[in-house]
Design goal:
With 284 residues, this protein is of the alpha+beta class. It folds into two domains: 59 residues; 146 residues, Histidine kinase-like ATPase, C-terminal domain (Heat Shock Protein 90, 2-Layer Sandwich), CATH 3.30.565. Helix content is 47%, strand content 15%. α1 packs antiparallel against α2, α3 packs parallel to α4 and α4 runs antiparallel to α5. It comes from Pseudomonas graminis. Its EC number is 2.7.13.3.
């Protein structure tokens, strides 16, 4: 058997020398020639770097918003604690100490401490969004699970539930975080309808297929949201209720943002609130 040196069909060509193009031939506006693989690698590196920079900027901006919110919210109970402490000291330092007034002040201090602790816990819930655990799922299945979790609340508040689930296509998302999102929206709607009267509260949940994703709509027949507050409600610690810290809808926005979706509020046909969110088929 002939080897490559003996075969008449085999010709060893010398390795081409590196090309050196004359300066007169190379266009002055063109970069030096390089291998296509180098271009692809550099392009991928640039995209990855840009994505990393965007994620870092987004995270810093969110943390700045949360920091400003917590600074404002914690100042209120701290000022109350300081005022009640000073008043309690004055009651106790009188010639005839007024113990009852001092005890009342101490109770207010305890309440202020509890509120400050709750604010810190709420901030932790906002900042502690775990990395997405992505899997293929059906959004309608997640909605049914969320309804099952909130069914005791719906029954206790005598809320009539109407659903229209029409999405058959699958999406890639985090089932646990989407469930948290829907539970928050349902709970918020039920609380908003607390003053509707016996058997008058109606909650509607619908899902739709979009060209490149899905949309979910949760609406109630409560008092609704004024137009100038429909963006504010998704901010951390914003609330119009006498109880609660106003982090439920902020968490909802955080979940939707993590899935590269969008969420917004509008008026429902009955004058109540309608919260809509859209998610892409795949969020990565």
């Amino acid at each position: 058997m002939l080897d490559e040196h003996q075969s008449p069909l085999y010709t060893r060509f010398p390795q081409p020398a590196e090309q050196h193009w004359p300066d007169a031939i190379r266009h002055p506006s063109l970069p030096p020639l390089s291998h296509p693989t180098a271009h692809r690698t550099a392009g991928c590196d640039q995209v990855a770097a840009a994505q990393s920079d965007y994620a870092q900027t987004f995270h810093v901006r969110k943390m700045a918003e949360f920091s400003a919110s917590i600074a404002h919210e914690i100042c209120q109970p701290l000022l109350g604690i300081a005022a009640n402490a000073a008043a309690s000291l004055r009651w106790l330092q009188r010639d005839v100490p007024d113990v009852d007034e001092a005890i009342a002040g101490l109770k207010e201090i305890r309440a202020g401490c509890e509120r400050a602790a709750n604010i810190v816990k709420a901030l932790g819930a906002l900042a502690r969004q775990a990395p997405l655990q992505l899997r293929i799922l059906k959004i309608d299945d997640v909605i049914r699970d969320a309804v099952g979790l909130t069914q005791p609340l719906l029954t206790a508040q005598r809320v009539r539930l109407e659903t229209g689930l029409y999405v058959d296509q699958s999406i890639v998302a985090d089932a646990v975080q989407l469930q948290q999102l829907l539970v928050n929206l349902i709970t918020n709607a039920v609380e908003a309808m607390a003053g509707c009267g016996r058997d008058a509260a109606v909650l509607r949940i619908h899902s739709f297929t979009l060209g490149d994703g899905v949309e979910v709509c949760v609406e109630d027949n409560g008092p609704g949201i004024p137009p100038d507050r429909r963006e504010q409600i998704f901010g951390a610690f914003y609330t119009t209720k006498t109880s609660g810290l106003g982090v439920g809808l902020a968490i909802c926005r955080s979940v939707v943002d993590a899935h590269h979706g969008r969420i917004w509020a509008q008026a429902s046909a009955s004058g109540g609130a309608r919260i809509r969110f859209q998610l892409p088929t795949c969020c990565y």
